[in-house]
Specification:
Elements (H helix, E strand, L loop, with lengths): L4 H21 L4 H10 L9 H10 L3 E8 L2 E8 L1 H22 L4 H11 L3 H9 L3
Antiparallel strand pairs: 1-2
Helix pairs in contact: 1-4
Bound molecules: zinc ion.
Length: 132
């Protein structure tokens, strides 16, 4: 899965969130979620999703069960209560991120920025007072 900087630094998080979202709606299994992620344009080779599923499982966000489908064992993954809570939290963060990055609502940051860049009169005068 880790094949370039974009994937490594940004998309792995998107993919995890995506998996959690689908698994919170209904049990999912590897092949179908891989196809879904490829549909979204994430470069995933077969089998690379499993480490993600295992990670989410080890964090307690997903649980798995096995079903026999047409004579073959298939592992289904489903979000746990913890996973659903994490998804809810991630959704609100995502909403903020969308508002800022896509809709350019960065007014709160502009306020912070102004506060930090306001000249501190006392500091300034002491700096200017010490002429070499
Ligand atoms: Zn999707």
């Amino acid at each position: 899965m880790i094949d370039d900087a974009l994937t490594r630094h940004f998309f792995t998080g998107f993919i995890r969130l995506h998996v959690l979202y689908h698994a919170a709606k209904e049990p999912i299994y590897g092949a179908e979620i891989t196809e879904e992620l490829v549909r979204h344009g994430y470069r995933l080779s077969p089998g690379t999703l499993y480490p993600t599923l295992r990670l989410l499982e080890s964090l307690g966000y997903l649980r798995q069960h096995t079903e026999v489908v047409q004579g073959r064992r298939r592992k289904y993954y489903q979000a746990t209560a913890t996973g659903k809570r994490v998804l809810k939290e991630a959704r609100s963060k995502l909403q903020e991120l969308v508002a800022e990055v896509l809709e350019d609502h960065d007014q709160p940051f502009q306020t912070i920025r102004q506060k930090h860049r306001q000249p501190h009169s006392q500091q300034r005068s002491s700096v200017h007072g010490k002429q070499p």
